[in-house]
Amino acid sequence: MSGTGGRGTAIEAALRALAPGLPARDRAAVVDRALGSRGLRQASPPAAAWAALAAYARHGFTEYDALLAEGYDRDAARHFTRDATEEVLRGWGCRHPLDAGPPGAGRQGEGKR
Predict the structure, then answer these.
(1) Torsion sign over Cα 74, 59, 17, 93
(2) CA-CA 20 to 30 A from 39: which of 31, 55, 70, 74?
(3) How many other C-beta atoms are found inside a 10 Å radius of the C-beta of residue 30?
(4) 3-class secondary structure per residue, the chain
(5) Is this prediction's pTM over 0.70?
């Protein structure tokens, strides 16, 4: 896992708090996603963990990518996969709703990832 080192360790700790039931293999993939995202480089570890976790659930466990391939725009694809994404997150023990944005951000919406 790329999670070794200060930032990766902090992201992994945030993931453990956000989604305590996330399997180790998936946690490693989410940490790698967060560390590899240029858009998350400046984000706090909890915000990076949240954004990467939501994206991992959306892309890997819903029909999001298929909807994009069919021509839906990102907002529409997110709308149609919202319930499925929330269900995946809940299955990992996550109680942080998608529309709450990053942890500690209040109810600002999901934002662009």
Answers:
(1) positive
(2) 70
(3) 30
(4) CCCCCHHHHHHHHHHHHHCCCCCHHHHHHHHHHHHHCHHHCCCCHHHHHHHHHHHHHHHHHCCHHHHHHCCCCHHHHHHHHHHHHHHHHHHCCCCCCHHHCCCCCCCCCCCCC
(5) yes
